[in-house]
Amino acid sequence: MRKIMAVAMVVVLSAAVVACSSSDTADPETTNDTTDVAADVAIATQTQNEFFAAISAGDTAALDAVLSDAFQLVRADGSHATKDEYLANPASIDDFALSDFDVTRTGDTIVARFTGSVTETIDGQVYDRDPAPRFAVMVRNGDRWQIVAQVNLSTPAPQD
């Protein structure tokens, strides 16, 4: 499990480096570090709620819009997906609650650590609703925020 989590973190950190380096060419006014943590938490919360709501509704167009073309997902079991792979086979979500957002930001990149309580089915496997750590990297693309990287550390529900 530790090895899987380490791999997941490497993927997310790599995405963050790419996202940060791509924002270096943006308008200088938008690349300064922000001190408005509450606003950044609100952005991360809204973006993640858009992501989970799109999955829950089965709205592929909304899901496509909230995911960056560079999107990658990694799960606790080591499975992973690019944007195209995820759009072709998204999870199924019955309900979700997101909380405990802790964010950092530089320029047009927000990195968020949070907790997700999600009732979901991934590749036919039911996952616990128990709160589990989540991690995401989001970048501003024009006038909207998109998810570049998402890590889901929830585990499958115990088999009866």
CATH class: Alpha Beta
Beta fraction: 35-45%
Question: Overall 3D geometry?
Answer: globular
Report helical residue fraction: 25-40%
Secondary-structure class: alpha+beta
What's the count of strands?
7
Give the H and E element order: HHHHEEHEEEEE
CATH fold descriptor? Nuclear Transport Factor 2, Chain: A
Main beta sheet strand tally, sense and closure:
7 strands, mixed
Description:
- The chain has 160 residues and is an alpha+beta fold.
- It has 5 helices and 7 strands, in the order ααααββαβββββ.
- Strands 1, 2, 3, 4, 5, 6 and 7 form a 7-stranded mixed sheet that branches.
- Helix 3 (37-57) runs antiparallel to helix 4.
- It is globular and about 50 Å long.
- The chain starts with a helix and ends in an 8-residue tail after the last strand.
- Mean pLDDT is 84; it is low at 1-32.
Task: For the structure shown, list the relevant keywords.
160 residues, alpha+beta, Nuclear Transport Factor 2, Chain: A, 7-stranded mixed sheet, 5 helices, 7 strands, 37% helix, globular, disordered N terminus
State the gist of this model.
By secondary structure, the chain is α+β, with helices and mostly antiparallel strands. Helices cover 37% and strands 39% of the residues.
Give me the secondary-structure topology.
Elements: H1 2-22, H2 28-31, H3 37-57, H4 60-66, E1 67-75, E2 80-82, H5 83-88, E3 92-106, E4 109-122, E5 125-127, E6 132-141, E7 144-152
Parallel strand pairs: 1-7
Antiparallel strand pairs: 1-2, 3-4, 4-5, 4-6, 6-7
